[in-house]
Automatic annotation (TrEMBL):
SUPFAM superfamilies: PLC-like phosphodiesterases. This is Glycerophosphoryl diester phosphodiesterase. The gene is ugpQ_3. Residues 1-25 form the signal peptide. One of its GO terms (molecular function) is glycerophosphodiester phosphodiesterase activity. Pfam families: GDPD (PF03009). Residues 36-276 form the GP-PDE domain. It comes from Solibacillus isronensis B3W22. The lineage of its organism: Bacteria, Bacillati, Bacillota, Bacilli, Bacillales. GO terms for biological process: lipid metabolic process. Keywords: Hydrolase, Signal.
Length: 276
């Protein structure tokens, strides 16, 4: 599974040119296409309210490989799933997530904004989602704005350890963040759990930056606007996999298939499904 190697420039380039790189490129395929993990971004978000049970259940029904979830923390220390750092956009409440207690957060309606049929969908807790979905679908855990929640890394680690989800065989858990210090810490806490770097910044795609990421990360996950075939090859040569986001059109999905990425993070799991 993970490499944890600091691969030097020379080795990276020679890997690209060596016979080993050919076997490295021989990956599972679906028909003529390389097998790509289908990650439902905040659930099947195109059709349901993001980061809710409705969104995750539909992702399971649509046969996605992973759900992607955004983890934050309530005022009284409970881990909850919500993308924005305020509740304003996706619920009928107002205020910062970290200023509201679990009880207050749970009383909000996180579904109606997407459609009346979703009225009353609550904000899920991290623990309930782990309990409900592990074994049914992979879980790509994003630590969202962890700088706002000191110690959240230890809490996430504890929840995974409690459920025995930190072992090498449990590969369908990945932890990612835009906050690199936070995921470095996660890697120290849970050395067997794959770690992903999130970025939309081209400055993070230099060979030097990628080499640094490869010392602790298994995945390099850029926005699709900065993905090139060269970047994909470089990430692979450093022993990491690459997942890209956020796909909201078939054209964007097709572009990423063409680039040879390993995972596509999409609001539309149907655009990534090899059966379509
Ligand atoms: O998983 C990638 C993606 O979730 C990162 O952006 O803003 O949707 O959390 P965002
Ligand atoms: Ca996210």
């Amino acid at each position: 599974m993970r490499k944890k190697l600091l691969v030097g420039t020379g080795m990276a380039l020679s890997l690209l040119l060596s016979p080993f790189s050919q076997s490295f490129a021989e990956q599972p395929t679906v028909g003529e296409r390389k097998q790509v993990s289908n990650v439902a971004h905040r659930g099947a978000t195109a059709y349901t309210p993001e980061n809710t049970i409705a969104a995750f259940d539909l992702a399971v029904d649509m046969k996605a490989d992973y759900i992607e979830i955004d983890v934050q923390r309530s005022k009284d220390g409970e881990l909850v799933l919500i993308h924005d750092t305020t509740v304003d956009r996706t619920t009928d409440g107002t205020g910062k997530v970290g200023d509201l207690t679990l009880e207050q957060l749970r009383s909000l309606d996180a579904g109606s904004w997407k459609g009346e049929q979703f009225a009353g969908e609550p904000i899920p807790t991290f623990q309930e989602i782990l309990d409900h979905y592990h074994g049914k679908i992979g879980i790509l855990i994003e630590l969202k704005a962890p700088e706002l929640y000191p110690g959240i890394e230890e809490q996430v680690a504890a929840a995974l350890i409690e459920r025995n989800l930190h072992k090498p065989q449990n590969e369908k858990i990945i932890i990612q963040s835009f906050n690199f210090e936070s995921i470095k810490k996660m890697d120290q806490l849970l050395p067997k759990v794959p770690i992903g770097v999130l970025t939309s910044n081209r400055a993070d795609t230099t060979l030097e930056a990628l080499q640094e990421f490869s010392t602790y990360a298994d995945w390099f996950n850029p926005s699709y606007g900065i993905v090139t075939e060269e970047l994909v090859n470089q990430v692979h040569s450093l022993g990491m996999q690459i997942g890209s986001w956020t796909v909201r059109s078939q054209e964007a999905a097709d572009f990423l298939f063409e680039m040879g990425v390993d995972a596509i993070i999409s609001d539309y799991p149907d655009y990534v499904d090899p059966r379509n």
